[in-house]
What does this fold into?
Amino acid sequence: MTSPENTLVDKKPVKKLPEHAPMEQFPVRDNVLMIAGEPITDFLNRVGKTPFYVYDKAIITQQVEKLRTHLPERIHLHYAMKANPMPDVVHYLSTLTDGLDVASHFELGIALATGIAPKNISFAGPGKSDEDLEAAITAGVIINVESRGELERIAVIAKSHNARPPIAIRVNPDFELKSSGMKMAGGAKPFGIDAEVVPELLQALPNFPVDFQGFHIFCGSQNLKEEAIIDAQTKTFSLAAQLIKASPLPVRWINIGGGLGVPYFPGEQRLDLTPIGENLERLLIQHQAIIGEDTEVVMELGRYLVAESGLYVSKVEDVKISRGETFVITNGGLHHHLAASGNFGQVIRKNYPTCVANRMTSNDKEIVSIVGPLCTPLDILANKMLLPKVQRGDLIGLYQSGAYGLSASPTRFLGHPQIHEYLV
Ligand SMILES: *Cc1c(COP(=O)(O)O)cnc(C)c1O
It folds into this structure.
């Protein structure tokens, strides 16, 4: 006899669970993941200890090339270095991109040390101190002004240095980047100056001792919907054109933001850059009378340039079973990789693409949860994932770890050893 419940279950269509996008950026040879042509096990023997982050230059280059191929030639590419401020990574990207965007005094130092021209560095961020502004003015980088008060402080410091610093006005638009991982514009925001009050500020600008460059319009981060990006970029161009018309001073520079995302979680797919590039091409033509050839149009990207290049590698310290569930305990965790633990802005915790880097093709699999060594239930790297069976000493790899990894993690929490990052 079938119970009513069973009948219901039988009628349900079999739903295929969403899967991670394919992670093929690192090849596999003899069951082992390869990093820059070397088995990860050999790499570990050379560097000596886990955990570590490794970033692959070839993949960073590939991402830049993808953008250069699909975006109009006129669009300048900047690297927003808060995604990964490791000096080697920043230096490498300074050779591939047209500029760097910094968001702190410390990042400014790293950017300047790459040797790129200060005019190709821009400095954004709410709450810049007088010391921050002084450093930016002395260096000659573009300051993205976040409030009227900040502009007034810039004027005072500029006068005392007898300088006319290049500035751009960061605009908080009256629209948002829809379905974004993080919204940073539209509505009330601490970032930028509300679009509707910018025209009035522009009228006052000729009285300030600054060298006005243009506008910075950044809407959000981690977007995987082409239509949403196209919509935001279309509105950004219209807003920029409107502000240019309202400006008594010439506009030489527009930063249209970025927001391009990468797939992290099951069901997410890589962006198709073709429609985005085609739309930008159209927008440049549509607005050419106002945003002329001599206006530099910049797109600033962090995550898209570096996320795919990075792998976070930790070692299995223990495998235990608790009431039927298998826990793999590693020497890495949320103290190095807060985002993978699901605690960096995520609403619902989901698993990063994960592998057992020394058992890539093993078919002997089981469902396990991978946790870190911290005494907190938040320290989860993978929750109930089907992975090759592991032993103590095996290597767990987390893909998509090149952005917002180590620098976005609470490294001093519980006092575990500091770890290394490698650019290969
Ligand atoms: C964080 C940030 C970026 C980088 O965003 P990604 O999603 O990493 O590309 C760019 N510009 C500004 C102003 C930012 O605050």
Remarks:
- Residues 1-7 have pLDDT under 50 and may be disordered.
- The first strand starts at residue 28 and ends at 29.
- The pocket of pyridoxal-5'-phosphate is lined by residues 80, 82-83, 101, 103, 124, 218, 221-222, 258-259, 300-304, 403 (CB under 6 Å).
- Residues 226-246 form the longest helix (21 residues).
